[in-house]
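Attaching the record inline, Q. Sequence:
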Amino acid sequence: MVAFSLVTIFVVVPVYLSSTLPDNVRLTDSEFAGTNPIYLPRSRFVQQETNSDSAVGEDAERYVQLKLFGFIPVKRVKVDLLPFENVIAGGQLIGFQAKVDGIIVTADSREQGLKKGDIIIEVNEKPVDSLADLEEILKTKVGKTVILVKLLRGGKSFELPLKVEDGSIGVWLKDETAGIGTLTYVNPQNNNFASLGHKLNDFETATSVDVRGGTVHNTSIINVDKSVGKKVGSYKSVLNNSIEHGTNKGEGDILSSNSFGVFGCLYNESKFLTDAINYPVASRYNVKPGKAKLRSTLACGTTEEFDIEIIKTRFQKKPSTKSMVIRVTDKRLLDGMGGIIHGMSGSPIIQNGKIVGALTHVVLGDSAKGYGIYIDFIIP
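Structure, as predicted:
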């Protein structure tokens, strides 16, 4: 019986844990050094050990050793160090004016089979990024003809023939978008920023879009529709052209976007850098259920930290926008906004004095609850 127990502890359990634990992790410098040990949700008994003699392997890669009870080796895990460890906390409402990666259909066309929110990405197997690209193709089409377009609809792609008559397809289109969200962080080393925590939604069609450039702006809040019952509220705001009066220069440039946010670089004189508050960053391996803070903006325009609770964390090997579940407990946010509203996406989540993630979604039917993404999924 004793022998069976020893085999279970020294062989069976380590083998099982090895199969469930990740092959690589993203850590901050201090987490890698072991001064801030990582937390693995699958087993509270697995501990990290960074041995200075073996932290860097023969392949010049970094590694940490995971041990059961601190002495039984379980797995040697490759480490990808996060590029920075301290950031300027966001929480301010940020506006976007951006070029879309593709062409958005802005109204249904029963005749052509197009729907509002479709995104045209190819014409006759040729990529199109803008209306100018499409116009260049259509101007050669004289009389009645047909083109084959590739569309994105609901995240899925398919091809559709469209009728062309004298260089026109007779459909309302655009290649620009605007919207709002919340600034997550700014890298103080170079003013690079991250925001939103998920794809940007086009305000006119409610379609999630990728963007290929544009500007970000400070905003003025006109009003706030509070969340009530199953209705999710939202900010009513306008974009400010605040750095150079009378121009649309804005506060910085949009450089890229992906499924986890909009990214860019702020100008040195940007208002978003005023009264900057610096925080260290913690990876997903240091996020635990418990008390935390959400940094966001009230209807009056002030940006503050509000009490929340992280009620669930998810063990995710791949990036996802729903890494954790949070609950707003702060009366100021519950009374003033009705909880979480549209536009708060990107609000940084702070736990134990470190930025650990960003708000991404509200739970429909319960605006006091929402989802967050781990910060290391956002950091490029």
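The chain has a mean pLDDT of 88. The first strand starts at residue 24 and ends at 27.

More tomorrow.
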